[in-house]
Amino acid sequence: MKLRLAKNSLRLRVLRSEVAALHTGARLQETLCLGPDPSARFTYAIEQTVGTNIPEVRFTGNEILVSIPAEQILHWATSDQVGIYAQVETGAVQPIALVVEKDFACLDRSDADNADTYQNPNMTC
């Protein structure tokens, strides 16, 4: 899973195996260690939720948690839908633009670099 932060937007790119795991209820997370102290770690995670119909973003401690309704995950994981897109209200002046997308193969990378990605629709064989 890749994370991109830009202005007031949050974008996650998710590999094929990660989409499958998320679809089965697994929580995906990555941690970036910024120093030897345990408090110098930054974690970002995504999980599915039941009982809500809108995506949510929470920041607590050193973690960003993206929660996506199970129904949206189901449709996304079992279709050719590229991503889940939402404007998430956080109580701040401006909502966060949330993008969670399937990770497509890069056209200029090797097969090894593109392992576990989705086939890029711009590829020609």
Describe the structure.
This is DUF7009 family protein. InterPro entries: DUF7009. By secondary structure, the protein is mostly beta strands. The protein has a single domain (2-102), classed as Gyrase A, domain 2 (2-Layer Sandwich). Helices cover 13% and strands 41% of the residues. The chain has a 4-stranded mixed beta sheet. A hairpin with a 2-residue loop joins strand 5 (56-60) and strand 6 (63-69). It starts with a strand and ends in a 23-residue tail after the last strand. The mean pLDDT is 87.
Give a brief outline of the structure.
Helices cover 13% and strands 41% of the residues.
| End-to-end separation | 27 Å
Read across the widest sheet, the strand sequence of neighbours is 1-2-8-7
- SS-based structural class? mainly beta
Report the count of strand segments: 8
Coarse shape: globular
Count of folded domains? 1
Quickly count the helices: 2
